[in-house]
Amino acid sequence: MIILLDGSKGAGKTTVGKTLVERLKDAVFLSLDDERRSLADQDRPRAERNKEAFENVMEKGSKYLDKGMNLIIDCGLTNERVSRLEALAAEKDSKIYKFLLKASYETQLDRVRSRDASKGNATDEARFAEVHAIVHAKDFSDFTTIETGDLSPSEIAEKIAVLITR
């Protein structure tokens, strides 16, 4: 199966994705952010790096599905990316589940500030606001929304696990 996680920064995608890997059998977590950070040429524009990173996610995802692995993917889901992942799921005869993780703006900003502070970084609040606006302008009508504000990553992973085993 393929589990897609979307939401703005601080929604819990990475933490929940990694928690799901521990919970589900034969699962791997693929992250656009991780793929982008691993690219050799970090001086290129973000859009170029994102494109290459997504191609890496697709290639790795296809190989993992061929090995019978389940995918948990966090990759800034645009309509085009969702379509390509749906096509991959169809090609590999895999189920696909789509989840939007969300919390209040302040909760997400607090999480990002805390994460940044733990790494000794200042939070780029303008970038946070920009990404938040982009994410919340998307159509999530075919996604299952999970409010993450008052839930632990384990509780969110449990909700997802229940939903995908129905």
Write the layout of secondary structure elements.
Layout: E1 2-6, H1 13-23, E2 27-31, H2 32-37, H3 46-66, E3 70-74, H4 79-91, E4 96-102, H5 105-118, H6 125-136, E5 144-147, H7 153-164
Helix pairs in contact: 1-7
What does this structure look like?
The chain is an alpha/beta fold and 166 residues long. It has a single domain, classed as P-loop containing nucleotide triphosphate hydrolases (Rossmann fold, 3-Layer(aba) Sandwich), CATH 3.40.50.300. Helix content is 54%, strand content 16%. It contains seven helices and five strands, in the order βαβααβαβααβα. It has a five-stranded parallel β-sheet, sandwiched between helices. The longest helix is centred in the middle third of the chain and has 21 residues, at 46-66. The two termini are 13 Å apart. The mean pLDDT is 95.
Rg measurement, Å? 16 Å
CATH class: Alpha Beta
How many structural domains can be distinguished in the coordinates? Answer: 1
Got a strand count?
Answer: 5
CATH fold name: Rossmann fold
Strand order of the largest sheet: 2-3-1-4-5
Give the oligomer, counting copies of the same chain as homo and different chains as hetero: single chain
Biggest beta sheet attributes: 5 strands, parallel
The percent of residues in helical segments reads 40-55%
Could you name the ranges where pLDDT drops below 50 across 5 or more consecutive residues? Answer: none
Shape: globular
Summing up helix and strand content along with how strands pair, one would put the structural category as: alpha/beta
Name the helix and strand elements from N-terminus to C-terminus, one letter apiece: EHEHHEHEHHEH
| CATH 2nd-level architecture | 3-Layer(aba) Sandwich
Distance from first to last alpha carbon: 13 Å
Task: Give the overall pLDDT as a whole number.
Answer: 95
Percent of residues in beta strands: 15-25%
CATH superfamily: P-loop containing nucleotide triphosphate hydrolases
Q: Helix tally?
A: 7
